[in-house]
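Postdoc handover notes: sequence design on the structure in folder B. Input tokens:
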């Protein structure tokens, strides 16, 4: 399973380097471990995060893309979707299945068709328009 995950992560990294989304840089922390990535996210315009650059870590499970990665900011962030330890609370990072809290549709949650780029773009959107976790 880790072989499939590694191939997928390598392909996603290649795509991100060839066509990076504006204001986002992401990739493996080192070439020996493609399962730990660092991301730098520029704060969206017209928000309190504008002009900021926010580092984050993405940790991918060995069964990626069947399971979502975990993401946490490594700097202090005050945002309703970011826990004090930096963990990001956003639907796209929640595993598929039943939602015990009843506030997310299954279409909003993780699925293998999602990608690192979609995660990072969702986080930029989240910074611009916060949604409180319940």
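Designed sequence:
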């Amino acid at each position: 399973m880790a072989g499939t995950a590694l191939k997928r992560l390598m392909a996603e990294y290649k795509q991100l380097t060839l066509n990076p989304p504006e204001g986002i840089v992401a990739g493996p922390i080192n070439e020996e471990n493609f399962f730990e990535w660092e991301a730098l996210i520029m704060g969206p315009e017209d928000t309190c995060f504008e002009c900021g650059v926010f580092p984050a870590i993405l940790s991918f499970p060995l069964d990626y893309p069947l399971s979502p990665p975990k993401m946490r900011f490594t700097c202090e962030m005050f945002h309703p979707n970011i826990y004090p330890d930096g963990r990001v609370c956003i639907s796209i990072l929640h595993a598929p299945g039943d939602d015990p809290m009843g506030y997310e549709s299954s279409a909003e949650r993780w699925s293998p068709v999602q990608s690192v780029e979609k995660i990072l773009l969702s986080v930029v959107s989240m910074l611009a328009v916060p949604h409180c976790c319940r």
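Context for whoever picks this up: The radius of gyration is 14 Å. Don't rerun without checking with the PI first.
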